[in-house]
Design goal:
Helices cover 44% and strands 22% of the residues. It contains eight helices and eight strands; from the N terminus they run ααβαβαββαβααβαββ. Helix 2 (38-52) packs across helix 3 (68-77) and helix 5 (139-152) packs across helix 8 (210-220). It has a single domain (21-240), classed as Rossmann fold (3-Layer(aba) Sandwich). The structure holds S-adenosylmethionine (SAM). S-adenosylmethionine binds at residues 19, 42, 63-65, 68-69, 87-90, 93, 116-118, 131-133, 136-137.
Amino acid sequence: MEKDRLFAGKKEKKEPFQFNREVAEVFDDMLNRSVPFYWESIRRQAEITLEYYQDKSRVYDLGCSNGNLGLLILDRMKDRKFTLIGVDSSMPMIEKYAKRLRENHDQKPVRLVCGFLEDVKIQNASVVLINLTLQFIDPQKRDSVLTRIFQGLNPGGILLLTEKTVHGKQEFNDLQTRFYKKFKLENGYSELEISRKREALENVLCPDTVETHEKRLKQAGFESIDLWLKWFNFASFIAVKK
Ligand SMILES: C[S@@+](CC[C@H](N)C(=O)[O-])C[C@H]1O[C@@H](n2cnc3c(N)ncnc32)[C@H](O)[C@@H]1O
């Protein structure tokens, strides 16, 4: 696995953060060192997918990146018949995912789409996953993304949503920010790398509060919502369409 040294160089890059080839090359190391409980979270999402999957329906992974979650789902679903649709706007990520599929899961029913998730029609879905991706979508479009997901889900289907969040109360927001920085320092990022990445992500990653997510999920039509995993500023929701 290539080490993430993207923000460690002598020359500071001033461009906004993008999921380009450079990022795709070091993505797993970046996730390991900057997303608390990343593997635990996606492992459980794959298991929840297995529980809620309805025969002959589709699973959508919106913002699928290089396929970590998709590959776990393939593993858990074993011989069950299903279609997994992975959508990502980054071609380097889709290429990485496709390569992994060729190497490990040649015959599996995965359709990869390089495009914007806002444009994807959701149909006959029993599980929709958006893992750490809604935060990159224009905030004005987030309501309609969730409404379209709700409409495309079959009754009994679920949305699994994981996001980096902010806290509405200053005291807890500060606490979350400090502990998140501590987590990254403990994982070998320097103060300089942390502050450069924060700048690069400004106006690119726009987090909401947990309350905003819950309100949006309710407005989209979901009646049954649970926050099943929370670590300071990271939150994972399950929302069921009744
Ligand atoms: C933090 S990564 C997601 C991680 C991934 N879901 C996982 O479980 O490992 C965010 C992904 O969303 C993609 N993305 C950002 N905006 C998008 C959009 N409008 N439509 C589709 N994908 C998008 C990026 O290219 C990137 O691969």
